[in-house]
Amino acid sequence: MAMNGATPSELLRVDSLRKHFRVSKPHGLGSSTLRAVDGVSFALGKGETLGLVGESGCGKSTLGRTIVGLHEASGGRVFLNGRDISGTSRRARSFERREMQIVFQDPYASLDPRMSVHEIIAEPLRINGMYSRERVAKMLTAVGLQEGAATRKPAEFSGGQRQRIAIARALALDPELVILDEAVSALDVSIQAQIINLLKALQRASGVAYLFIAHDLSVVRYISDRVAVMYLGRIVESGTRDEVFGSPQHPYTQALLSAVPRPDPARRRASTRIVLKGELPDPLAPPSGCGFRTRCPKAQAICASVTPVGASDPRAHAVACHFPGPLESSSSSSANVPQ
Length: 339
Prior knowledge:
Radius of gyration: 21 Å
Helix content: 25-40%
Low-confidence stretches: 329-339
CATH superfamily: P-loop containing nucleotide triphosphate hydrolases
Strand content: 15-25%
Number of strands: 11
């Protein structure tokens, strides 16, 4: 695994994946295209955790749902264990869905309130011909719940306990990949820590890989082997955890990291908060060229006409920027950029 320095064998590869939505304009004046995911590529190794971060509305959740098949892709390909699973029928993807599971942000909304915990965990097992009472009991134990919880309904549990139930259901089929879509963001900090440690323990025991979607950079830094930063439907920087957090090269990544609270007062004084100018662009009318250029302190004329791309190697430290590196190395001004 990546944590001990070895390169894990590839489990998931996403190649130029796109998901576009048609959005109606007011008063029946036609429609516009929302490019929620716009040419995303990355790779995830077996037993590895990739943290996917970015502001709300950048396309993180849409990307996760498109990979698992809840949204039909508008283009690009998804490979699982070398098999191209993009464009296959819903019925043909049943096997892949056993190998890929998803856990959502709100566990109460994703759990049927009419079903007991036993029925919730047993449902995917029955569908796939893998049901046994012993298997359900084993999953409850694995996520730290008592066997007596099996007869109770979701409403009888706390938010953290409900998320444990959702995780037990997702892992019941022994998937190779679990997509965690803001799975801890709605929980208190102490409960977040419990769930994160549970996920890490389950990963060590089973070798499952995680695509961990979140906006909390501190949590992402703790759980992830690799990190990808997303902005307006594109990945602008990706690399190992130490590369992205220790030596961020994209100005957007640098701005995000500068806003993370630091417990050490000396380090807090030494760091400079990077405040991005302007608002997040309208995703229905994104800027030409580099989508970040209207807020970037490094932007120059080329940024308005040429879309930057990262490295072709999915495991390289890739930066989609014409002027990567520390902000101090650039004397450019966004004032001369065509708007």
